[in-house]
Every structure is written in C-alpha cells, then in structure tokens.
Amino acid sequence: MEEEEDAHEDADYDNINDDCARYMMIIMMMMKRRRRRSMLISMLLFMLLLLLLLMEKIMMMMMVMRRRSLLLLLMMIIMMMMMMMMVVVVVVMMMMMMMMMMMMMMMMMMMMIMIMMMMKKKIMMRRRRRRTTTTMMMSSNPNFKNCIYQHLILIGTMNV
C-alpha cells in the first residue's frame, strides 16, 4: 500500500517539474524579447502556478487527513493566503517602478523559501517513522526547490 502511495507521489512530482520547466522556458522567452509587460505577465503566471500547486496539495491532504495534521493544514492555508497576497502585490507593482518590484519579488520569494524550510523541519520532527503524503511537495522535492531558486536568480539578473 505504501509503495503504491510513493509511486503516486513520484508521479505527482514529475508533473510538477514538467510544469515548472515549461514556465521557466516561457519566462526565458519573455526575457529574450525584453518587453517589460510580458516579463511581468510571465512572473504573474509563475505565481499562479505555485498557488495552484499548493491548492492541489491541500486538497490531497484533506483526503488523507489525520487529527494531528490539522495544524499543518492551517499552516498550508496561511501560506496559500500569502501567495494570494504576493500575486496582488505583483499586479500593484506593475503600475510602479520596475526596480522596486524586482526587489519586492526577491524579498517575498526568500520569505517563502524560509517558511518552507521551517515547515519541513517541523514535519520531519513530527514524522520520523515513515514518509507520508503530508510532507510538502515543495520542501520534500529538491527539483521543485531548485526551480524556485532558478526563478530567483532570473529575477535578480533582470535588473543587470
């Protein structure tokens, strides 16, 4: 039973990485064009992708709910709200200066990564016995984390 679950999880991660790679390619193409608006739109799309992935994961968690993972679910919902706020900030910053927006984006991305790391530590402390579906896809999947870092680097290089 557990092996099946693991296989299912791996399939999920593969899909996530495919989506991620596709979005990275779109962003790269947008950068080549050097159009400000298209770059902003691509970043907005990236944020929405992350939001959708998070929502999907929460739905999966709802199905395999345990009493003690209630706190984790609450944390996930808080993170989702933060994501929503980020998307709103991106839209607002579209009307403002480009440099300011870049700095804000980088700061917020860093915050998100830090929160993910903290959550991963908490999950690991709680669940040492076996790996379950409740481990977050972002923190438990190194490829996805690398993808976020790549996005950060991309945002950083846009100012130069």
From TrEMBL:
Stated name of the protein: Uncharacterized protein
